[in-house]
Every structure is written in C-alpha cells, then in structure tokens.
Write a structure and sequence with these properties.
Helix 4 (116-129) crosses helix 5 and helix 5 packs parallel to helix 6. This protein has 8 helices and 10 strands. The two termini are 19 Å apart. The protein is 34% helix and 28% strand. Strand 1 (3-14) and strand 2 form a beta hairpin. The strands form 2 sheets. The protein has a 6-stranded mixed sheet, sandwiched between helices. A 4-stranded antiparallel sheet has the order 2-1-4-5, covered by helices on one side. The relative contact order is 0.19.
Length: 229
Amino acid sequence: MNPVIALENVQRAYGDPPVLACAGVSLRIDAGEFVAIVGPSGSGKSTLLNLIGTLDRPTAGSAHVDGLDVDSLDDRSLSALRAHRIGFVFQQFHLAEGVTAVHNVADGLLYTGTPLGERYRQAEVALRRVGLGHRLTHLPHQLSGGERQRVAIARAVVGDPPLLLADEPTGNLDSTAGASIVGLLHELNSQGTTVVVITHDNELAAQLPRRIAIRDGRIVSDSAQEIHA
C-alpha cells in the first residue's frame, strides 16, 4: 500500500513564546483506509487536520500528502494539490444560499480548470452518487440538514480526489441524519476513497475501522498499532 498521508515527527508551533499545538506526530495512512482522529477540544486535532490538508505547514518534521513533500511546494502548488487531490467536508455546510444544489457542487471544481459544462455534468454525477439525484435544482433552504451535508460531501468528492477529510461531519445533524452520513462515508470508502474523519465524538469514532486518539498535540493510541502489536 502507498501512503496517502505520511507524517514524520511533525510539529506545529504558534505564538511567542511558541506553544506546540502538534508536538511530534508520526502517522501513516494508506490508500483506501477509513480513519477516525478523535480527541477533545484543544487536543490538537484541528491543527492535525490543517497539516494533513496542507492548509498549514509544519514548523518541524516532514509531511507528505499523496506522495508530495508539503515543505517543498510553493503556495500555488499546494493550492493545486488541494484542488485536485483533497476533498474537505466541515461541520458547517458552507453552501451558497440562493443557488441550486448542482451549482453548489459545480463550484467545487472552480479551481481545477474544468470547463463550465463539464463542471455541471460532474456535479450531477456527484449528487446522484450521494443519493440526491432528485434534488439537483433545490436550493439549500429547501433541503434538510442531512441533505445539505450530502450536497457538501458531493462538492468535496466531485473531482474524485483520493483523500476526503471530514471535520465533525455529523456535528450539526440529528442522530438519524448523522447515521446516514456515516453510512455514506462508508460507501465512498468502499469505492476507493481514503476517508479521514476528525471528531470529538467517541461513539462516532468507534464505528470506524481505525481509530487514532490525540491529546495535547500527541497521538496517545492507534488501533492499527494495537492490532499489529
């Protein structure tokens, strides 16, 4: 297996004097894995998300995403990496009000250079993939919370990125809608997408094949290592 994410003793410091939000994390996630990174507020999981998603650079150590050394890439190359190789889903849906579901999803391809007509064709395919083929022309306010999150997921996977990062993807949903979203993530993973869920919810993490616990900027447990111990 080739690693989609490979971190080696990664640190990220903020402020003066510096405070380590990520305090020497080494982590490998292979293609096709479905992983939960779980920890309480202030544990460093959001910093780790930013490092994995190339939204931030490490202050020490090395980070490779999809085989590329993050530290060796300029900002334009990092933007291209995110546009083509990483999909992001957040607790807040971040949908544009007043435009249709298919328009919102097509916007996920704005920075890929894809022609307009092809963006809309791929957006329709992505919405059908997440079970919203009957909601293509609906506006966000016409959709339930679970449906809005499905639109957000469709936007994240419209370019078929190998890596999907989901930050508290069920945080704004009731239990039924949340379970539906977890089921959808399982389905996307079964189709080959590497999925990493960042959450404070231990119950959600327990449903995923691999669970990595983080506290004070350090990994304190990894179920994959426990299996191989």
